[in-house]
Specification:
alpha/beta; 9 helices; 9 strands
């Protein structure tokens, strides 16, 4: 079963006659771990915005878990994202005035579906998840601003994984780390997705990371705009 189905999709920014993304077909299988690479301007951020429901296709169809995003209101898309998608942002987007454990538990406040997945209780699962991601127990009640970049990255991953979302999207989450830390983080992320059965879509410009994944896809090979930029000038 595919967790993502995308067909004849095009996206143009409001007021523009030119598409910045045109993809004939794309899919992601349930449980698959996919690495998507692409240079700056290849459409990575636009694609992630569409997959997260922040943007909507200008034409074509996009379905996640057999739910068509084109048929949902913006409020419904927000709820769907909260219930089913864990997102690791490039800049982590942690809340600076909250503690580590409070940041991790944020998705459970917005999603009943993810809250009911947590056993025996939210605090225990958050604590266990952080320990599995190698974050010391002594850090749990600290403000996230007191953590190193690598530790903040693990908090962002735990927040995305809490409540067992079916799809995890990671947007350049290792860009601030050295090669050893990058490889260690990816391995931990893989282990957690494997444990919960989540599909992983990992976006990065660093193609050296692709060997960790089930499949590698260069965005330029499916985005017609990136293949033939002169046609859209």
């Amino acid at each position: 079963m595919n967790i993502i189905e995308l067909n004849n999709l095009a996206f143009s920014w409001p007021g523009s006659k030119q598409a910045c993304l045109e993809i004939e077909q794309f899919s992601l299988k349930r449980g698959e771990k996919l690495f998507i690479s692409g240079a700056s301007g290849s459409g990575k951020s636009t694609l992630l915005g569409l997959l997260a429901g922040i943007l909507t296709p200008s034409t074509g169809s996009l379905s996640i878990l057999q739910t068509s995003f084109g048929d949902l209101t913006s409020i419904a898309r927000d709820k769907f994202r909260a219930d089913h998608i864990g997102y690791i942002f490039q800049q982590f987007n942690l809340i600076p005035y909250l503690s580590v454990i409070e940041n991790v538990l944020l998705p459970c406040h917005f999603s009943k579906a993810r809250h009911v997945q947590i056993k025996p209780n939210p605090h225990t699962q958050a604590s266990d998840l952080l320990q599995q991601l190698h974050l010391p127990k002594s850090c749990l009640d600290k403000p996230v601003t007191q953590l190193s970049i690598g530790q903040q990255q693990r908090v962002a991953a735990a927040r995305a994984l809490i409540g067992n979302p079916e799809l995890v999207i990671a947007d350049e989450p290792t860009s601030a780390l050295d090669s050893q830390s990058r490889n260690a983080f990816i391995q931990l992320l893989m282990e957690q997705c494997e444990r919960t059965g989540a599909s992983l879509l990992f976006v990065s410009h660093d193609e050296q990371l692709q060997s960790h994944f089930d499949r590698h896809l260069a965005l330029s090979t499916i985005n017609k705009v990136a293949q033939n930029p002169d046609e859209y000038l």
